[in-house]
Amino acid sequence: MPRFAANLTMLYPEHDFLARFEAAAQDGFEAVEYLFPYAYEPAVLARRLADHGLQQVLFNAPPGDWGRGERGIACLPGREDEFRRGFEQALRYAQTLACPRVHVMAGLAPAGAERARLQSTYEANLAWAAQQAASVGREVLIEPINTRDIPGFFLNRQDEAHRIVQVIGAANLKVQFDLYHCQIVEGDVAMKIRQYLPTGRVGHFQIAGVPERHEPDIGELNHGYLFKVIDEVAAACAWLGWVGCEYRPSRGAVPGGTSNGLGWRRGSRSDGA
After folding, report:
1. Cα separation values, 267 from 205, 215, 221, Å
2. Furthest-apart CA pair in the chain: how many Å?
3. Residue 23 backbone zone (phi > 0: left; psi -120 to 50: alpha; other: beta)
4. How many CB atoms neighbour CB 82 within 10 A?
5. How far, in Å, CA of 105 to CA of 155, rounded?
6. Interior/surface letters 191-226, b for 16+ CB within 10 angstroms, e for the rest
7. What global pTM score does this model have?
8. Residue 169 to residue 199: CA distance in whole angstroms
9. pLDDT score of 272 more than 50
10. Residue 107, SS3?
11. Catalytic site residue 220?
12. Is residue 273 part of a domain?
């Protein structure tokens, strides 16, 4: 069965962030991911991981000014130096946290911008980031995101992401395949898993129910079936990655709300819980 990682940005909102590590471990998760670690010193986060026997499997590079609505800067001409400084910071965190992969958000396409110029900037930044990450044994991930949740996001489709990975040709540049975003933009999720996972270009999966982004057993996707597809294809191609649980608990921030919504994992887990 897939190995599930708790997304601590979304799960356990009933707890302060640093308390979410313990909550995830108590629920049987062996790995965690989250959006950004930069509000804390890396040693503080490393201690939480060690204290609760958790692996850090993913986080994002700095996205620009998140509070003002930026969602990455990798495609933005003129921000290359800022991108490089942020990615170097991300690699320092990744090394301290023993995290194997860093997600680089593409960013929002400015109104009226020439797409070819954005594409060129994006690919040049990714090629540089992949080279830096390779020197310390890390992977760089890119993620197609639907434009309903993030209007104007530069990268939206699986085929676009895989084409970029192929064009750059770095072995450590891979795609973060979020089933939620894929269903909203494209659909045909099972066949895309079968198409792309054997290529070696998928570094990580994420899940959430569609359309409300709640637990994966709520909504229009049959995640039980999709987990079996992932297992089948992963076994055939020796893929050993993680499935990140990046959803908003339907019970909100009430005490025990996240834990009480984990029934979907019964019969679908290999994480020892």
Report:
1. 19, 15, 17
2. 51
3. alpha
4. 13
5. 9
6. ebbeebbeeebbbbbbbbbbeebbbbbbbebebeeb
7. 0.95
8. 13
9. no
10. coil
11. no
12. no
Report the domain count for the chain.
1
Annotated active-site residue in 123, 143, 186, 212: 143
Q: What is the DSSP letter of 108?
A: B
- The CATH number for 117's domain is 3.20.20.150
Report the amino acid identity of residue 112: G
Q: Is residue 75 packed enough to be buried (19+ CB in 10 Å), middle (13-18) or exposed (0-12)? A: buried
Token output for 221: 């996707």
CA–centroid distance for 226 within its chain: 18
pLDDT of residue 252 exceeding 90, the answer is no
DSSP label at residue 18: G
**Owning domain of residue 245:** 4-265
Alpha helices in 103-261 (DSSP H): 115-134, 158-168, 179-185, 189-196, 223-237, 257-260
Cβ atoms < 10 Å from Cβ of 69: 10
Q: Is 14 a catalytic residue?
A: no
pLDDT in tens, 101-119: 999 999 999 999 999 999 9
- Residue 75 domain flag: yes
pLDDT digits (tens, 9 = 90+) for 55-107: 999 999 999 999 999 999 999 999 999 999 999 999 999 999 999 999 999 99
User: What is the pLDDT of the chain when averaged over all its residues?
Assistant: 96
Out of 14, 139, 215, 246, the active site residue is 246
- pLDDT score at 269: 45
Q: What are phi and psi of 195, to 5 degrees?
A: -75, -45
